[in-house]
Amino acid sequence: MVPINSTHRNPQDTRLLDALAAGNSSTRLKAALAIGTHPEPGFVDALVARCAIEPDFFVRDMLTWALTRLPSEITVPKLRAELRSERAQARSQALHTLSKIGDRNAWPAITRSLLHDADDEVARSAWRAAVILVPDREKEALAAELATQFGRGDREVRLSLSRALVALGDVVEPVLRTALARHDPAVRAHASATERLLRDPDAGFDLAVDEARRVVALGPDREETTAC
């Protein structure tokens, strides 16, 4: 059950808040839609609390939408507090919602620990939020921080990291060159695939990875080998 402050609630508000905790996901979805359609600041605590535990992806997305409909000066402090939660979903969903709100005042809350979070979903959400919220003067430092995680995780994690780096633009080129000189073949392949995406954003990630792995496997004489 989502904890709520019931003080001065009218019956309609109480029904909506109860519906957010209903067993049926369709009921929860409709409640989040109704709250977002007629946003009231008094709902923010319940929405944020529900984000931390909501199991259904579509309901979570609607909760985020409802939060974006509220004033950022109310929602952003609540979401920043969630970034310190021990619950991974609370951190991940708060980061996702901050990225949708796009208030750059939230940038200081995107800490190094979140960018390196042990939970892949939290880290991916942190990368996406970071590239949206980062001030221009800090893009190079962010690129360097993200590049330390080349080779991390499965395909989806690596794709998220590559997309985040590509979103930063040309500032990533120095860190890509550094990563391409690393001894770890997984790091070099990931960096090479990211470089290809930077040059051609429409290129398929899987094709870029396959080509990068082939190039890494061929080694420094690849140009001569491929020309034969």
Structure description:
66% of the residues lie in helices and 0% in strands. With 228 residues, the chain is an all-alpha fold. The protein has a domain at 138-228. It is elongated. Residues 1-7 and 220-228 have low confidence and may be disordered.
Uncertain parts: 1-7, 220-228
Alpha-carbon distance between the two ends: 67 Å
Shape: elongated
Order of helices and strands: HHHHHHHHHHHHHH
The number of helical elements comes to 14
Mean pLDDT metric: 88
Query: How many E-type strands?
Result: 0
What can be said about the biggest beta sheet?
A: none
Determine the fraction of residues in helical runs and give it as a percent range. 55-70%
Strand content: under 5%
Determine Rg (CA atoms, Å): 21 Å
Class inferred from helices and paired strands: mainly alpha
Protein name: HEAT repeat domain-containing protein
